[in-house]
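re: the backbone from monday

yeah here it is again, tokenized this time
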């Protein structure tokens, strides 16, 4: 053993310690500490939200059972029985059908969410959430989840590399009783494992080197209803338009090379996950989407509902990017028409732009489709941020992740993509107004504006492009009035 340990150094991150073979350090990626910290923060929020939702569901069921038994004018014995049968129904497909009927009227409703997620037994107890770390390498992430997130259940760590699994098993032992009781490591192809464990994990974590695209189809099937899929993509060159056709083949979406490309990368990944989910009558609700360092990472909840799935075309858009100026426009794929309480689903009206850009006369490139619905749930973001702040010492990357979360909490949630003030000025060949001046001009024109975590110079606004250009023209005029008199004649 002593001889064995000489070959290793111990690396500690958070509560977890891993043995690192000095000859082979590829396992440990220090830049990923932000990623792991953020995931732990989201996981902690997930554990408490899941508990809340389960409690709300139980009391709702109890109430409706009580109502039913009042109608029957029966005694308390029957009431008990009907509560139990309601829970039983929750696990069968029958209940799902009923919920789908109801949710037709309110298409965005996710009210059916906790039906299957809870695995609640007859006494209404919630089992601790099961986590799958599909591509675990040395197991650092799985160990941190198990040791640091209170209330977490089993963590299954997979890898299809024998040496990684051996390292992971060694690390589990090295981390002591909590790790040994909670973490299990298997040699497996993640895709096969996830396909053969459908709707079994409350959280599925995909953190591949490169693209997650080949894992998405099985991952969306392995998550329980209301569970969470966490997914990283590090192939930013592909997602940002370096090879548009490669991106299209992997994600089914064409990227554009705008300043907003990193946000577009997030939205392409979300659209791709949604399309995989749709194949199984499922859909996603993003809670947090982050671009950091050299990767994007999204946290989405997965639900099953054939009727709610009809809303997918409303959440996707093509993007027209002018090749001559900074103007871009979104073309939604679908739309709805409401008549009384019924909703009709129709293809989107188009084209949303003329053949030539009305601002500069050049043609447009078309990219997408991207996810154009919100990429964060602001209530979640607030909860995650509060959680992080209240446990400051527990996060080795506290400064970074709290800063990112703060910026995200201030982002306009319903405005896809963003403009760059520098680019606007480069197009007009003018000096840049300060962000403060530009922001107040947009607000004075009656529109909203915010920053973006993706780019410190990026500005999100719901102002139409012609309003933006009007503001910029005013600025150019103002500048020429100010500076002309001082120019030497
Ligand atoms: Zn243009």
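seq for it, each position gets an aa:
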């Amino acid at each position: 053993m002593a001889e064995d340990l000489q070959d290793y150094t111990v690396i500690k991150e958070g509560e977890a310690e891993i043995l690192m073979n000095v000859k082979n350090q590829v396992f440990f990626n220090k830049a990923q500490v932000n990623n792991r910290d953020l995931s732990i923060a989201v996981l902690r929020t997930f554990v408490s939200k899941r508990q809340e939702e389960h409690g709300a569901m139980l009391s709702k069921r109890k109430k409706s059972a009580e109502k039913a038994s009042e109608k029957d004018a029966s005694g308390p014995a029957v009431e008990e029985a009907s509560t139990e049968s309601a829970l039983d129904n929750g696990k069968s497909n029958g209940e799902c059908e009923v919920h789908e009927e109801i949710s037709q009227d309110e298409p965005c409703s996710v009210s059916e969410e906790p039906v299957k997620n809870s695995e609640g037994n007859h006494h209404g107890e919630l089992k601790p959430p099961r986590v799958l770390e599909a591509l675990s390498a040395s197991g650092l992430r799985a160990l941190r989840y198990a040791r640091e997130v209170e209330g977490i259940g089993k963590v299954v760590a997979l890898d299809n590399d024998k040496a990684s699994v051996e390292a992971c098993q060694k690390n589990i032992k090295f981390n002591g009783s909590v790790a040994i009781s909670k973490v299990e490591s298997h040699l497996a192809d993640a895709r096969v494992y996830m396909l053969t464990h459908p709707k079994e994990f409350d959280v599925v974590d995909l953190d591949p080197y490169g693209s997650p695209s080949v894992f998405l189809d099985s991952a969306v099937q392995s998550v329980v209803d209301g569970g969470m899929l966490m997914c990283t993509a590090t192939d930013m060159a592909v997602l940002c338009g370096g090879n548009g056709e490669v991106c299209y083949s992997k994600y089914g979406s064409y990227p554009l090379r705008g300043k907003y490309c990193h946000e577009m990368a997030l939205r392409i990944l979300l659209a791709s996950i949604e399309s995989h989910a749709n194949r199984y009558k499922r859909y996603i609700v993003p809670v947090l989407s982050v671009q950091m360092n050299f990767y994007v990472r999204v946290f989405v909840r997965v639900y099953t509902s054939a009727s709610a799935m009809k809303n997918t075309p409303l959440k996707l858009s093509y993007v027209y990017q002018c090749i001559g100026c900074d103007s871009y426009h979104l073309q939604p794929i679908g739309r709805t028409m409401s008549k009384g309480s019924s909703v009709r689903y129709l293809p989107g009206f188009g084209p949303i732009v003329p053949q030539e850009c009305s601002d500069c006369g050049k043609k447009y490139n078309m990219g997408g489709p991207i996810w154009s619905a919100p990429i964060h749930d602001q209530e979640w973001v607030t909860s995650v941020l509060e959680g992080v702040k209240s446990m400051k010492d527990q996060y080795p990357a506290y400064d970074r992740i709290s800063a990112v979360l703060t910026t995200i909490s201030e982002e306009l949630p319903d405005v896809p993509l963003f403009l760059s003030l520098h680019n606007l000025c480069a197009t007009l060949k003018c000096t840049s107004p300060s962000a403060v001046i530009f922001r107040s001009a947009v607000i004075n024109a009656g529109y909203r504006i915010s920053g973006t975590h993706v780019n410190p110079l990026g500005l999100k606004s719901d102002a139409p492009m012609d309003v933006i250009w009007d503001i910029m023209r005013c600025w150019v005029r103002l500048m020429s009035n100010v500076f002309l008199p001082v120019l030497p004649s």
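Residues 322, 324-325, 327, 357, 359-360, 362 surround zinc ion (CB under 6 Å). Residues 65 and 237 are 54 Å apart (CA to CA).
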